[in-house]
Task: structure prediction
Amino acid sequence: MTCLRIAALLGLAMLLLSAAVPAAYAQNTVGTITQLQGVADIQRNGATTPAAVNEPVMLHDKIVTEANASLTISMVDNSSLQLGASSTLTIDESMLVSGVGAPRKVGLLGGSLHSTLLGAMRGSSTMFEVNTPNAIGAVRGTDWTQTFKDQPQSQYKGCLQFTDVDVNEGTVQVCNKEGPLHCTKECRDVTAGHHITVACCGFFLANTGGLGVLGPIGATALGVGLAGGIGVGAAAGAGAFNTSAPPVPPLPVTGSR
Result:
């Protein structure tokens, strides 16, 4: 009798395990590489291998494209992530959408990422996020491009982090990340046809209905606000990123795309 019980328990354990493995695999697999131009690598579990078409993309993968390369990850309901040249993407968190694994949070450490969310991913109650070192782009359904650069720009002395967001469809909530200079986290909704830039943690350049606004993020903490829809933060005017730098000039605004 004891042997029969042991056998029954083993059989039940195997049945539960076989049911759990596909579910875990479905959640850990977040998409498939469907297009690849040039050379790209996937870093997974401490190993680096060349990326290939039809290869699954897994939770915690790190994908790096070389110069003149691009890669498309297809997801549930034909949603996709298109990684540009010289770009680095990490799959940080996953979720289940209609029983299929999909990314919930990704990290863009450099380069550009074009995100298109359709079908079930567009209607998912869990917000999809693209994180850069200095900003977060979050959305429940849209089409947008996010770019991160860590190269100096003459307008911002001492700032080396720039996130650009261009929205083609829907609305993207763009938030800065808290940083030095007492920057506090704030968010802006960017609608279709508009662009926004986060420079370090302190500034947005936005086109909203054709009216350009240059202003500080964390304006209360910096002790300044916007006047008449156009303003330059006191930290910028004082060369806050580099105390010996001249005042930061206003950036050009081109209106709606």
Summary: DSSP finds four helices and 18 strands in the chain. Residues 2-237 form a domain with the Jelly Rolls fold (CATH 2.60.120.1440).
